[in-house]
Amino acid sequence: MADTRSKTSRPDDRRYFESHEWVKPDGDTMLIGITDFAVQELSNGNEGDLVYCDLPEVGRVLKAGETFGEIESVKAVADLNCPVAGEVLEINTSIEEHLEVLSKDPWKEGWLIRIRPDSKSLDKLMDAKAYEKFLAEKAH
Amino acid sequence: MKHTPLNDVHQSLGAKMVEFGGWHMPVQYGPILEEVVTVRTKAGLFDLSHMGRVRVTGKDRERFLDTICTNFVAKIPLGAIRYSLFCRADGNPIDDLLVYRSADEVFLVVNASNTDVDLAWMREHAKGFDVVIQDQTDELAMIALQGQASQATLQEMTRDLDLASVGYYKFAYGTVSGIANMRVSRTGYTGEDGFELYIPKKDAVRVWNECLQHGAKHGLKPIGLGARDTLRLEAGMPLYGHEIDATHNPIEAGLEFGVSFKPEKGDWIGRAALEKTAAKKTRHLVGIQTAGPRVPRQGYELFRGATKLGYVVSGSVSPTVNANIGTAYVPFGDGKPGDTVELDIKGKRQPATFCALPFFSRTRK
After folding, report:
1. Which chain B residues are closer than 8 Å to A77 by Cβ?
2. Residue A132 domain-assigned?
3. What is the full per-residue pLDDT of chain A (140 aa) written as tens digits?
4. Which of A70, B48, B147, B294 has the CB geometry, 3.0–4.6 Å to B142, for a possible disulfide?
């Protein structure tokens, strides 16, 4: 019998943004990172192709959708956008020296910033299933 | 999007494919920087079938081309190739190209992104000349072998032609992969020794696979457009849309070698404007190098304190030079190699140094 489950299912404990960031509640705060799709687009699975990541200062206040940094690969620079409004509490400084982590684990170890969100509600954002549908439609 | 005859092969090799100049092309098969190193240390195989190939025949072909090409076409030795541009009356280029002169034809290789514009330009200006302009792009595949192992690899597949006798920027004909009378040129866009082959499309896949087979023992690998861009930048070669374009002329880009003002050539489109520019350059193309971490990108500005000096037109990580490199336009008197400058990346500054072009060079035959 054919296995009809999808081979790669993205984590269900978070929401997704159309520019390929994810946001995950963590107690009173939220963690933000980029999806495997974003990493693949930038580096085609080659961790050596990621060369730089620019993260914001702690304390910076972000609006929903605002660009908070950049990630650079050999061939391109991509904006990092914050899916929800909030204040930057912490940044993952070790990522800046170890961009290859994004290729291996963009979901947990690859978190980029921690924010105190203005609102706990993430209802307006795509869940894993909706994000996967979004990607499938983009492919056409 | 158009597909080259090698499209299936690239996909089966696991290439990441992108749209480029209207064609579906491989940007990388593996890490881009590894592909650059492979070409610089062993050899690489490139699909160039997206580039425009045009055959010009007829008794007025050279006289005609000398009215629209910047180089002196009629003076190209038979069997030789020269770099050239098509310019508008204002001296700005619509494309750059290579011109191959034979006894009974002139063959042109133009950029994929400008092929249609080039053909329209040629046809518009051919009126009154006895010429035939034949677009061969869709009938001929084009493959390049670049890197030190290129000659050894290709010679194993070639009869009736001693590749060692084909000098740089020359072309000849031999039996390659059993295909008689194939044009082989010692040209390339990497700064390495290498060859380009012009193959009837039905034979493209077979020739590609034979190159990979014969080249395997030399470490030959397929190489995508991502690495190709880094290699040409390291070698100081221009890319239309970056160093040259509708507002950046070949004189200020340092491409005077492709421009002839010889009176015997006669008048040509853009000559008067470029003569003026040559007499009084206001800006010029220079190289920049930075330790990083950011990479120079087209559009980034160069500053000296509060003074904006110029802007970047190309940039890349360079594994060959072990720095992040770029080309930029600055005022003609500025940009002396060794002088420092600041690269501005969305308000953040990073130190850089001006350097001479090319960043990398290897002695050619």
Report:
1. 295, 297
2. no
3. 444 444 458 999 999 999 999 999 999 999 999 999 999 988 887 878 899 999 999 999 999 999 999 999 988 899 999 999 999 999 999 998 899 999 999 999 999 999 999 999 999 999 999 999 999 998 76
4. B48
CB contact under 8 A, B28 and A44: yes
CB nearest to A44's CB, from B16, B230, B317: B16
CATH code for the domain in which residue A82 is found: 2.40.50.100
Angle at B103 (CA atoms; ends B98, B107), nearest 5 degrees = 25
Per the CB < 8 Å rule, is B28 touching A52? no
DSSP-assigned letter for residue A14: S
Handedness of CA B204, B209, B210, B212 (dihedral sign): positive
Q: Looking at the domain covering B2-51+138-234, what would its CATH class be?
A: alpha beta
Q: Which DSSP string do the residues of B184-217 spell out, in sequence order? A: EE---SSSSSEEEEEEEGGGHHHHHHHHHHHHGG
Residue carrying the six token digits 């190939």: B53
A1 assigned to some structural domain: no
User: Tokens for B303?
Assistant: 């500053």
Indicate which of B20, B27, B33, B228 best probes the interface with A, i.e. most A CBs within 10 Å of its own CB: B33
Nearest-neighbour CA in chain B from A24: distance (Å): 29
For A23, half-sphere exposure in the C-beta direction (CA atoms, 13 angstrom radius) is 28
**B294 with A44: Cβ contact below 8 A:** no
Domain count across chain A: 1
Residues of chain B whose beta carbon is less than 8 angstroms from a beta carbon of chain A are 16, 27-28, 30-34, 226, 229-230, 292-295, 297, 316-317, 346, 348
Residue of B nearest to A50 (CA): B31
Please state the pTM of the whole predicted model. 0.92
Selected from 3.20.20.140, 1.10.10.60, 2.40.30.110, 3.10.105.10, the CATH number assigned to the domain covering B282-355 reads 2.40.30.110
Q: In chain B, which residues fall in CATH 3.30.70.1400?
A: 53-135
Q: Do A74 and B295 touch (CB under 8 A)?
A: yes
Using the Cβ of A9 and the Cβ atoms of chain B, whether some distance falls under 8 Å is answered with no
Residue A53 resides in a domain: yes
**B149: number of CA atoms within 13 Å, CB side?**
19
* pLDDT tens profile B31-61: 999 999 999 999 999 999 999 999 999 999 9
